[in-house]
Amino acid sequence: MSLAIIHSRAQVGVQAPAVSVEVHLANGLPSLTLVGLPETAVKESKDRVRSAILNAGFNFPARRITLNLAPADLPKDGGRFDLAIALGILAASVQVPALALDNIECLGELALSGAVRAVRGVLPAALAARDAGRTLLVPRANAEEACLASGLEVIAVEHLLEAVAHFNGHAPIAPYISDGLTQSHSPYPDLREVQGQLAAKRALLIAAAGAHNLLFSGPPGTGKTLLASRLPGLLPPLQEDEALEVAAIQSVTSHTPLRHWPQRPFRQPHHSASGAALVGGGSKPQPGEITLAHHGVLFLDELPEFDRKVLEVLREPMESGQIIISRARDRVQFPARFQLVAAMNPCPCGYLGEPSGRCRCTPEQIQRYRNKLSGPLLDRIDLHLTVAREATALNPTPQPGNDSAGAAAKVARARQLQGQRQGCANAFLDLPGLRRHCQLSTADEHWLEAACERLNLSLRAAHRLLKVARTLADLEQVASISRNHLAEALQYRPGAD
């Protein structure tokens, strides 16, 4: 048979579209032509494949070989098609039975020796192969990752010889069974390590319970970064579908994505990060920090030190939970359902309002510093809290119940209520859900409208205030929102003090 078709998967964002590797052998002078919009790494695969086939002891056909990667309009990159191309050439030259490859999808890069190397993006390909009802052939180094797609049959190989022996029936390979890569959490820092700051811990609890965005403002050394780093430890464990989404994102950005499975991500980019670093981009769009923080926490320390144009790119993803990157040739959508926690100083020197009078910033300097943050961005942050300096205590007495475990239990109960009532955290309520689940009495509604008018709050800010009040009621395990919940939620809006 001079024609063989092998199934594989490309990588476009966090998706894995199907690719058919078509191999045709024809009479004529020996040559190898590769078509189907291959990029440089794919074009080089023909040299890797030739050496791998010869060094594995097989015959490389001295014929006119045409390789087509279909569909032709889908860009292909990387070495992920090497194994499929090699098996296609061997099947077309009748060194491997073509029928044995009908229900197989192949991923893997080949070394010149024929060894099969790991590739990125195996988990999205594994999920797609499972949905297509096919078996997945992957490098041994990617087998654990592929097994996260439950119900998928995975064949793991370390060398081209193993794959050929399996398909020829000489040494069949049993489906790979995972070693149990299900829990590899690294411990989260505990909330009890933060001295004092009861108001800030209360705000952190509310943020965790409702998935609200949070901004800490205060002098240096008051524990803003410590508090933010404790937030992931308060959040409930990832659901299976959420964990798979997080792992799929890590899969397309790293060869070893499963170091902490299934753990919520905590991303802390430096304030010198560019807009593309935050939202993603490049000639071949790659995920940015907001996508790497999907279902986790994005912490922006020294918020005003970020370039204003960089911060403005966060506005749409904070509302929609996704980012669409458009290029002349590509339009890629990445998930970005993250929880923003930010920290800033009250002025350029950081000591505004200190009783010691250390601040020497002029009103113009302070105003210029604060103007780096736009009103629409601040409007999307639900909780604003000033973190004051605590009295120095080198060996403070631990407060009972003031730890991450106790706070996480309260958060879990509140999130369970929200899941049963509306199927999502309060911060993600849409307008119909807000009207259905955040109803107020007539007196409280008039009181809230008057407060919003007095503080010049936008309609978006009023809706977010309602969501925070709903979270406060959930923390107390009560069905309706009361005036106390509204008053506390109002305290977390700028200008309410």
UniProtKB/TrEMBL annotation:
- Source taxon at top rank: Bacteria
Q: Name one GO molecular function term.
A: ATP binding
Q: Where is the MCM C-terminal AAA(+) ATPase domain?
A: 286-387
Q: Which PROSITE patterns match?
A: MCM_2 (PS50051)
Q: Which keywords does this Swiss-Prot/TrEMBL entry list? A: ATP-binding, Nucleotide-binding
Q: Which Pfam families match?
A: ChlI (PF13541), Mg_chelatase (PF01078), Mg_chelatase_C (PF13335)
User: Which residue ranges does the record annotate as region Disordered?
Assistant: 266-285
Please report which protein family the annotation says this sequence is part of. Belongs to the Mg-chelatase subunits D/I family. ComM subfamily.
What name does the UniProt record give this protein? Magnesium chelatase family protein
Q: Which organism is it from?
A: Pseudomonas saponiphila
